[in-house]
Design goal:
Layout: E1 7-11, H1 16-27, E2 33-40, E3 43-51, E4 67-68, H2 73-86, H3 114-117, H4 138-147, H5 164-177, H6 181-193, E5 198-199, H7 231-236, H8 249-253, E6 261-263, H9 265-276, E7 280-281, E8 284-285, H10 289-295, E9 300-303, E10 310-313, E11 318-319, E12 332-336, E13 342-346, E14 351-357, H11 368-380
Antiparallel strand pairs: 1-3, 2-3, 2-14, 4-6, 5-6, 7-8, 9-10, 11-12, 12-13, 13-14
Length: 381
């Protein structure tokens, strides 16, 4: 007999269908543990959680449970970069090498900063092959990227910067602020907003971390990714992500600003609520409205060389498109993480929402669990 999952938290009555959809995901055995949160005008109108933090379903998912959200982390890193732009410390049209001189190698002397944010720099991966634990070595990763030759002509196409995104932008943060990206994020965003999100997780929080439950092996051939020499395979398999490593102290402690952020739906939606409200939340201004507006200007819209499907990229996130429609409003941006986590900001509705879970699915993009929640949410507005 299947044990019924109790859904906890807060949900305004008008969004009852969203809570029902959240519970249905558990009833249909699509979830083990998860959270879903929505802000409108900066206030949480939905903050739900339920299930368990482990595959054996012995430990309850609590209000303060957090988990590795993989590439949803990229949104946090992009916000840090836009804050530097807002402060006049970083010019998106200036060469990366102006801030990071070693980056000028391999013909990259004039490559502009904006190409890093839009996944169009040609640096979707490394030629040198290595195991995933090398991602802990920041200096090695950035030295290799400084020497790396772009895999295509920069600015002409997008190719999702799966792991490189965080090192490329993180090194700019380090060069400009003299702080690691995790430290800058914590001091300038997480602490001021009281948001329970980390890039580099202190050990005292380990007790609250849910175990990620690996998905079935992904059949990349179903996405047309079969050539081992293709850009997609070179990016997605070097290194190969080992979900079991996310349970280790070394992984959690490292700062890998593309993939190892830890948080829950409440913290992700609170941070992005500031963007949904024009850059300011509870008297804390992260960004100007001008910078936010510029960040959702289309930079690239074509079949992505890594994700092998059309992605409309702005500066640091995906944009509303016919290929990935999210609700009825035009001024929407989003991104998600391996396994299913996602965050969406709807500027027109002044709304942000996030879905975070521990049972992973095998998909490069899209997840029927969050799609169901999003449909119910917009139907309730």
């Amino acid at each position: 007999m299947t044990r019924e999952t109790k859904i906890e938290g807060h949900c305004e009555e008008r969004f009852k269908s969203v809570k029902d959809a959240f519970k249905t995901n558990f009833d249909e055995n699509l979830e083990v543990g998860a959270s879903f949160a929505v802000t409108i005008n900066g206030k949480h109108v939905i903050d739900l959680w339920g299930g368990y933090t482990d595959a054996d379903k012995t430990k309850k998912w609590n209000k303060d449970t957090i988990v590795n959200v993989y590439s949803t982390t990229k949104v946090m890193t992009a916000i840090c970069i836009h804050m530097l732009v807002d402060r006049g410390l970083l010019d998106l049209d200036a060469p990366v090498a102006n801030y990071w001189p070693e980056f000028a190698q391999a013909g990259k002397d004039s490559l502009p900063v904006r190409y890093l944010l839009s996944h169009t720099s040609g640096l979707a991966g490394w030629d040198k092959k290595f195991r995933i634990k090398k991602l802990y070595d920041w200096n090695l990763m950035v030295e290799l990227l400084a020497a790396q030759k772009p895999w295509w002509e920069p600015g002409t196409k997008s190719g999702y910067h799966t792991s490189t995104f965080g090192y490329l932008l993180g090194e700019l943060i380090k060069r400009i602020t003299k702080k690691t990206p995790g430290t800058f994020f914590r001091e300038e965003i997480a602490i001021p907003l009281g948001a329970d999100f980390y890039i580099g997780l202190p050990e005292e929080h380990d007790i609250r971390v849910a175990d990620l439950i690996p998905p079935p092996p992904m059949d990349l051939s179903s996405y047309g990714v079969i050539d081992p020499k293709s850009i997609a395979m070179r990016s997605l398999t070097n290194p190969i992500m080992d979900v079991e490593l996310t349970k280790t102290r070394t992984w959690r402690n490292a700062e890998i600003p593309a993939v190892n952020g830890h948080g829950n739906a409440r913290s992700v939606s609170r941070i992005t609520a500031a963007l949904a409200c024009g850059g300011e939340l509870d008297g804390i201004r992260l960004l100007s409205e001008k910078t936010i507006k510029h960040s959702i200007e289309e930079q690239s819209y074509s079949k992505d060389l890594v994700l092998t499907m059309p992605i409309r990229f702005g500066l640091g996130w995906g944009l509303q498109s016919k290929d990935f429609p999210i609700g009825p409003n035009p001024n929407v941006f989003w991104w998600g993480g391996y396994g299913g986590s996602v965050v969406v900001v709807d500027l027109d509705a002044k709304m942000s929402f996030s879905y975070v879970m521990n049972k992973m699915v095998s998909s490069l993009t899209g997840d029927p669990r969050s799609e169901k929640l999003i449909k119910a949410l917009y139907s309730s507005l």
